[in-house]
Write a structure and sequence with these properties.
Elements (H helix, E strand, L loop, with lengths): L1 H16 L10 H12 L12 E6 L2 E5 L8 E9 L13 E3 L6 E4 L8 E9 L11 E3 L13 E6 L7 E7 L7 E5 L5 E6 L10 E3 L5 E5 L3 E5 L5 E6 L7 E3 L5 E4 L11 E4 L5 E5 L2 H4 L16 E6 L5 E5 L4 E5 L5 E5 L8 E5 L5 E5 L4 E5 L6 E6 L7 E4 L5 E4 L3 E5 L5 E7 L16 E5 L4
Antiparallel strand pairs: 1-2, 2-5, 3-4, 3-6, 6-7, 8-31, 9-10, 9-32, 10-11, 12-13, 13-14, 14-15, 16-17, 17-18, 18-19, 20-21, 21-22, 22-23, 24-25, 25-26, 26-27, 28-29, 29-30, 30-31
Length: 446
């Protein structure tokens, strides 16, 4: 009893001395504000931006998005639906990506021909996410199937990293059976054209906007065929080799460098009626030292590529001079590109950023340079493959044609697709059976 009395006395002294205060009275309004502050939910990570669905092919769609900036990031949720996604609150994600830096994902198992919708959210470590999303849609295209050829194989195919489609190429590995083929991503032949025996096979091949094929038979002519294999247009001349392009105006421009002489035109442009409407002669500009005495492989310049540029000028590859020239419509040389860098260049192509992508087969080198500074912007080395053709694909990868194989490589140099042709040796000794050029036809092409 005495103890209880002492405790009560101490409490009383503390209260009156100000060391302990009775609870403050809270008005009804203040009580509601305190409750609201305690019950306010934490802010979820910001909504994902930059979501893109691409390469919708063979039941797959590749997704990419901007990396989350959430400090307490835990994972990404991937959502798929057959209807438009506005709010993912009641949906179950098909996959979770744990690494904040991994902002790509390939959705598989989709139905070809059926439109699907995709959304991605960032989730924090407390499970919070912004479920009000902006979705994107894509409709996978079925991979065209073909026939298996025992001489052709695809031994690398990273479906989530390639630019999907078909590949068109001239196949001369069997000298008794020259042909142009189109293969799917598995290497199956989905279209084939047997080049007539009176021709020297095909070197350059390209798909035209009307779905026809344009091809060059060196020192014989340039031909346009339809998908039934019928020749619908041709221009015959023994002063042609390596490369031909159909221009937007319907004309055809082509190169001549196989055993070309000083009096030859290295480039000609002909109209649909076969009339020569433009030509370019290297002798008008380079019949001087140190070029005038060059003579290799029975010719002078060995011009191997020509491209009409958007500005109306023409890009010409002078292989034996080790550089590329840009000439204006009057034929004057506007600039020389790659001198001191290129070594027997092949297939130069101007890129959207103004750089030039080309190959140097004898060095096994594919290189992109800044034409103004000569700085190397990108390169890929494959010493054993003798690369003669390189095409930059829309996803940033590069399709490279070597003597016996075609590869698709990423900007980091990783091979994500590789087609091999049996019976062809790697390197320069593969002539004349070598592969020369190939082009990837995207899934949106005709």
């Amino acid at each position: 009893m005495r103890l209880i009395y002492l405790i009560a006395l101490v409490i009383a002294i503390l209260v009156f001395s100000g060391c302990a205060q009775p609870p403050a009275e809270v008005t009804p309004g203040e009580e509601e504000e305190v409750a609201e502050e305690e019950e306010a939910p934490p802010t979820p990570p910001s909504a994902i931006t930059g979501l893109v669905a691409c390469d919708a092919y063979d039941g797959r769609v590749n997704l990419s998005w901007d990396k989350s900036t959430a400090e307490d990031f835990d994972h990404y949720d991937i959502y798929v639906s057959k209807t438009e996604i506005v709010d993912a609150a009641d949906m179950t994600p098909i996959h979770q990506v744990r690494d904040i830096a991994t902002n790509t994902y390939q959705v598989t198992g989709l139905e070809d021909g059926a439109e699907c919708y995709f959304a991605v959210t960032a989730v924090d470590k407390s499970g919070n996410q912004d479920t009000l999303v902006s979705c994107v849609s894509a409709t996978p295209t079925a991979m065209p199937r073909g026939t298996v050829d025992p001489d052709i194989s695809v031994d690398v195919y990273e479906s989530d990293m390639v630019w999907a489609g078909t590949t068109l190429l001239a196949d001369n590995h069997n000298l008794e059976r020259h042909r142009i083929i189109e293969v799917n991503m598995l290497g199956e032949i989905i279209w084939e054209y047997m080049v007539p025996q009176n021709l020297r096979g095909a070197s350059d091949v390209e798909l035209l906007p009307n779905n026809n094929i344009l091809f060059v038979s060196d020192k014989i002519g340039v031909y346009e065929i339809n998908r039934n294999g019928e020749i619908v247009w041709s221009y015959l001349t023994d002063k042609i080799s390596h490369d031909a392009d159909r221009l937007p105006n319907g004309n055809t421009v082509f190169a001549f460098g196989m055993e070309d002489q000083k009096d030859d035109a290295q480039v000609k442009e002909v109209n649909p009626e076969g009339e020569v409407v433009w030509s370019w002669y290297a002798k008008d500009h380079f019949d001087k030292s140190p070029y005038k005495d060059i003579y290799e492989q029975g010719g002078w310049t060995h011009t191997n590529a020509v491209t009409r540029l958007p500005n109306g000028n023409t890009l010409i590859s002078l292989r034996s001079f080790h550089f590329v020239v840009e000439v204006d419509p009057q034929g004057s040389v506007v600039r020389t590109i790659g001198e001191g860098i290129f070594y027997y260049p092949h297939d130069p192509e101007i890129q959207p950023n103004g750089n030039i992508l080309a190959t140097s087969p004898l060095r096994g080198w594919v290189v992109e340079i800044n034409p103004e500074t000569g700085a190397i912007a990108w390169e890929f080395r494959a010493p054993e493959s003798f690369p003669r053709d390189a095409d930059r694909l829309p996803n940033g990868n590069t399709l490279i044609t070597g003597a016996a194989r075609i590869v698709e490589v990423t900007t980091e140099g990783e091979i994500v697709w590789q087609l091999r042709v049996k019976g062809i040796s790697e390197g320069i000794k593969a002539q004349p059976e070598y592969l020369y050029k190939a082009e990837r036809i995207g899934i949106t092409a005709p």
